[in-house]
Amino acid sequence: MTPDAYCQERASGSGSSFYYSFVFLPPDRRRAITALYAFCREVDDVVDEIREASVARAKLAWWREEISRLEAGSPQHPVTRALAPHMQTFSIDCRRLREIIDGMQMDLEQNRYLDYEALKLYCHRVAGVVGILAASIFGVTQPDTHRYAERLGLAFQLTNIIRDVREDAKMGRIYLPLAELQQFGVPVTDLLAARPSERFVELMRFQHQRAIATYREALALLPDADRKRQRPGLVMASIYATLLSEIEQDGLRVLTHRTTLPPLRKLWLAWRTWQTGTVRGL
């Protein structure tokens, strides 16, 4: 299997909404973003699938070494071998790849966040940095486009946090800031026991409103000059914003119910957004 085929298999087999934003890209950009996505999947799986923390730390340490090998021109893993031809063309910075690993490392070192500012650092590393790299692959001519992409990555991660409250709690991870749990009178034990309440719904409504505001802030930053180039990001925004709307319409029942969008609907949203270049429903 070639490095590109390996990355393609990782991307298409994940079922992620991100995959639907790749399908309309020219081949070179599609290969580059697929390789970046596969890298993110590889390092994310280290902390999500390896239960022994010491083994996970060793795996992340190996990936740090692999980024150094990529930087030196001698990558070993199929993902980094697939990334290598695109590093200079699309300004893929090894420093930012290491920053993504730093974010994954945070999942091994802490499972609670005191306040929103602390959570934003985590979101920046695991999603904002990915947004910046992805925007570079899609095409950037204006400095504000990177600000838009970082902010959009934050919005995506806030959406993931809302959707995955129950699954994360099962792994002992609470991404909702502790200060906000206290503000709304929701004990951590309610999350760990998947015990919903009216106070929890109010807390999630607050999280939902902040996520929506973050999407709007991001889209307001996107320069018109780069809007056409950044259509893949807008596709992702359309799918994620629709998911967020569905969660809200479903009563924010994230402790007892997982809301998803069927593949056909994602494909329709992707096609419509690619054609119009606009994100509806925000």
Describe how the helices and strands are arranged.
Layout: H1 3-12, H2 27-49, H3 53-72, H4 78-83, H5 94-109, H6 116-138, H7 143-163, H8 165-170, H9 178-183, H10 188-192, H11 198-221, H12 231-249, H13 263-276
Helix pairs in contact: 1-2, 2-5, 2-6, 3-5, 5-6, 6-7, 7-11, 7-12, 11-12, 12-13
Distance between the termini: 42 Å
Strand content: under 5%
The CATH homologous superfamily of the largest domain corresponds to Farnesyl Diphosphate Synthase
CATH third-tier fold name of the largest domain: Farnesyl Diphosphate Synthase
Helix-strand topology string: HHHHHHHHHHHHH
What Rg do the Cα atoms give? 18 Å
Cα shape: globular
Annotation, overall tally of beta strands: 0
- Name the CATH class of the largest domain: Mainly Alpha
How many domains is the backbone divided into? 2
How much helix, percentage-wise, in residues?
A: 55-70%
- CATH-scheme architecture of the largest domain: Orthogonal Bundle
How many helices? The count is 13
Task: Tell me the major beta sheet.
Answer: none
- Which structural class should the secondary elements be placed in? mainly alpha
Low-confidence stretches: none
Average the pLDDT over all residues and give the rounded result: 93
